[in-house]
Amino acid sequence: MLSKKTKYGLKALTYIARSEGDSPVQVGEIAKSEQIPQKFLESILLTLRKSGILGSKKGKHGGYYLREAPSEIKMTDVMRVLEGPIAMVPCVSLNYYEKCEDCPDEHKCSVHKLMIEVRDKTLSVFKNTTLADLSGS
Amino acid sequence: MLSKKTKYGLKALTYIARSEGDSPVQVGEIAKSEQIPQKFLESILLTLRKSGILGSKKGKHGGYYLREAPSEIKMTDVMRVLEGPIAMVPCVSLNYYEKCEDCPDEHKCSVHKLMIEVRDKTLSVFKNTTLADLSGS
DNA sequence: GTAATTCCTATTAAATTGATAGGATTAATA
DNA sequence: TATTAATCCTATCAATTTAATAGGAATTAC
């Protein structure tokens, strides 16, 4: 299941994509409109900024803005920042690979091959979807 | 990420599929061979039995066995029993549908459509995979 | 009747997630 | 320069879920 962090993050990004004009969008506005606890949303947008997906402007009239056009922002990147690995087991993760403790040989593991398939299918969706698709192009 | 419950469950099913002969397979044997805490595995196999995937025989020389041939046991069923919904959000779940609290209209939700796509791709993998595939046909 | 097994319920420990709190820092503007 | 309004940062807490353990009841083979 998707964490609320990810869901809130996706909604916020969509909101920003839709309302991009001259000035950055403020956390308070997004929180109110999308019914997200403001302080929680703050921390999520901070994560997105640190990862390079969002930029920010501090102080009065500050807020957040996209660093690239919505059509350039891939779901693979967004999901990895918000949700972490796309794979269902660490041993098939491309970006966060880890050996499973309980597996002497992962090529003999019955779960391994199945999870590679799932990973590839999921990845294909996220690779071919951008923020523009979410915000209704 | 897959829960350990699911991973252990899949490994145990694979083990049973591979060693099916006349007599049922015992929890202790599986636990030892697959390095799974025995009591934890007990509860997992109990779940699988209650769902109808496994059968059991009590008492001395008892144990667990598959209710159908490995090639008849679909991953969709196994995953739903062990891991729960296949969808990443309740509002796109086929078997466990629930409205999202924070969504006034799910057809306008930017996350909804994306998650339907992911669900369908994942589902296609699980639909076309059986325990026979896991246990090396 | 004894030993070996599944079955059942309850409990606990650890990890993760969701949310909150309080203030430091920065920038616009009057 | 003081005020206001925003992001930024760190810490903490509460709730939930996950992983594992404990102890014994019920059942069956021999």
Short structural description:
Two copies of one chain form a homodimer. With 137 residues, chain A is mainly alpha-helical. Chain A has two domains: 4-66, Arc Repressor Mutant, subunit A, CATH 1.10.10.10; 72-134.
Key traits:
homodimer; 137 residues; mainly alpha; Arc Repressor Mutant, subunit A; two-stranded antiparallel ribbon; 6 helices; 6% strand; elongated; DNA-binding; WH-like_DNA-bd_sf (chains A, B); DNA-binding transcription factor activity (chains A, B); TR_Rrf2-type_CS (chains A, B)
Task: Describe what this molecule looks like in 3D.
Two copies of one chain form a homodimer. Chain A has 137 residues and is mostly helical. The first copy, chain A, folds into two domains: 4-66, Arc Repressor Mutant, subunit A (Orthogonal Bundle); 72-134. Chain A has helices at residues 4-18, 27-34, 38-50, 75-82, 110-127, 131-134; strands at 54-57, 63-66. In chain A, a hairpin with a 5-residue loop joins strand 1 (54-57) and strand 2 (63-66). Chain A is elongated and about 60 Å long. Chain A starts with a helix and ends with a helix. The relative contact order of chain A is 0.16. The structure holds a DNA duplex (30 and 30 nucleotides).
